[in-house]
Amino acid sequence: MHVTEQGPDTAPAPAKGRRSRARARAAIAIGILAWVAGVAWGLQKIETYSSTPGIAAEAPAKWPGSALVTPRPGRSTLVMFIHPQCSCTRASLEELKTILQRTHGAVSAWVVVLKPGDMNDAWSDSGTSKTARSLSGVTVVMDDNGTEADRFGALTSGHTVLYSSAGTLEFSGGITAARGHVGENSGEQSVLSLVATGKSDSSSHEVYGCGLHDPEPRASQDGLAP
User: Fold this and answer.
1) How far apart are CA 226 and CA 221, in angstroms?
2) Interatomic CA distance for residues 200 and 139, integer angstroms
3) pLDDT tens track for 84-101
């Protein structure tokens, strides 16, 4: 009896090609979905970080005295405490610029720059510090070891206090709506109202910035840590 040998069962070439293309399309679709999910997760983390305020602090109700800041007679005194390595503080400085432009010399403004004892002058002479020095009508001083920040209870970069000409605390908090966000916000509006009328709906606002005593605030931002 004659037996015809048969080879392995194989599908027609067109069918094999279709299956290969289907697998490739599925792999691409999975890759795209994974990429979209990763981007969405990253954006959510950034948004959460941007909208998370720093540690709240309580400033003295009366002017506590200062070795660096000298109030001017007949003018309100505004003091902002900044970390020189906190890039998002530049938004706070931009809002300070707006306040000074709209108060027309009614405010004596000071920016106090943190300078830890174990850091050199170059560390404090950052882009953020240079932005502060570029503001017209602002006096910039260095705060060795954060002594002045401790005196006023400031814990977060961008923390701003406003004292009346009589030395009474009128505002304590931040003047941005989020980290690194420039634009009208209730903190800024409170300061403007207090300078103009002595009244405001609020005397505080969340502070959005790096921790004043954080040694590596940029690293914290990159890692989306508070």
Assistant:
1) 8
2) 26
3) 999 999 999 999 999 999
- 99 phi and psi, to 5 degrees? -60, -45
Closest C-alpha among 71, 117, 189, 183 to residue 173: 189
* Beta pairing class for 169-173 and 76-82: unpaired
Q: What is the pLDDT of residue 35?
A: 54
Burial class (CB within 10 angstroms; exposed 0-12, middle 13-18, buried 19+) of 2: exposed
Residue type, 141: V
C-alpha distances out from residue 146 to 17, 82, 86, 116, 139, Å: 70, 10, 15, 7, 17
CA–CA gap between residue 1 and residue 209 (Å, rounded):
91
Q: How far apart are CA 161 and CA 165, in angstroms?
A: 13
